[in-house]
Specification:
The protein is mainly alpha-helical. Helices cover 60% and strands 6% of the residues. A three-stranded antiparallel sheet has the order 1-2-3. Helix 8 (136-163) packs antiparallel against helix 10 and helix 10 (172-188) runs antiparallel to helix 11 (196-211). The longest helix is centred in the middle third of the chain and has 28 residues, at 136-163. The protein starts with a helix and ends in a 14-residue tail after the last helix. 13% of the residues are buried. Residues 90-103 and 244-251 have low confidence and may be disordered.
Length: 251
């Protein structure tokens, strides 16, 4: 990310009265990550760019495009709000402004994906300029999720109708995303991707409703924090993946 955009992100943060720590809390990331953005050492990913634009009440091109001064952007934003009384006028105005040609803005995240604003359009491209395509692992996960959903739906109705188990069969629904996340954890080699709490909820509710053993099986919930502590350590030191929401950690 170039220094002009980095300086702009810092200005916008200060103008909106946020400290680096306060902004990091709102984005769900670390303060060091925000600091790296403002020093042009790394770039916010696309999700964080969208959140920042909403937080500062501006569009993405206003957030990143620095050919206008901050005062001009504020003035233009106020003019837009004054014209909100007529939706037809707003549509005509937007159609006219879309014809304005602007120099493209390119921001590349740590994974090499390029976020580009060009002629009022948002594009996602690779480093070589080719459009971002879904990877084989993403396609595989989509297919796996579709198969698991179909099996869950079928199992739910078969179990409910054939065994009159409507009171219990609903546990398949919290179990479904837990099973989906197993495959995501395997493909991405990140144990913290496994939604362990949903598995515990499904198992606990089944045991409680089927065998009336709500006690002492409540202890299953105590295993949730240890699971994520151990899983995070395995992810970091065995699989060498970065901790979640800590994009400044390069270990």
């Amino acid at each position: 990310m170039n220094i002009e955009i980095a300086n702009r992100l810092q200005k916008l943060r200060k103008e909106n009265g946020y400290s680096q720590e306060e902004l990091a809390d709102k984005l769900g990331i670390s303060r060091q990550a925000v600091s790296k953005w403002e020093r042009a050492e790394s770039s916010p990913d696309t999700d964080n760019l969208i959140i920042l634009a909403r937080l500062y009440n501006m569009s993405l091109d206003e957030l990143l495009y620095d050919s206008e001064s901050d005062e001009e952007i504020r003035t233009r934003t106020m003019d837009k709000e004054a014209n909100n009384a007529s939706s037809e006028e707003i549509k005509e105005e937007s159609s006219n402004t879309n014809n304005t040609s602007k120099e493209g803005i390119v921001v590349t995240d740590d994974e090499g994906q390029t976020f580009k604003i060009e002629d009022g359009h948002i594009k996602f491209t690779k480093a070589d300029g080719t459009p971002v395509e879904r990877t084989k692992s993403q396609i595989a996960l989509t297919i796996i999720d579709a198969v698991i959903f179909a099996l869950t739906l079928t199992g739910y109705f078969v179990w409910s109708f054939c065994f009159d188990a409507w009171e219990i069969s609903w546990v398949l629904w919290p179990l479904m995303p837990a099973v989906m996340s197993i495959f995501e954890a395997i493909i991405k080699k990140r144990l913290t991707k496994f939604v362990y709490p949903l598995l515990i909820v499904a198992v606990y509710c089944f045991i409680g409703m089927k065998f009336n053993l709500w006690h002492p099986f409540w202890f299953l919930f105590i295993t949730i924090p240890p699971y994520y502590i151990i899983a995070d350590m395995i992810d970091k030191y065995v699989f060498k993946t970065k901790p979640l929401n800590d994009d400044e950690d390069d270990d």
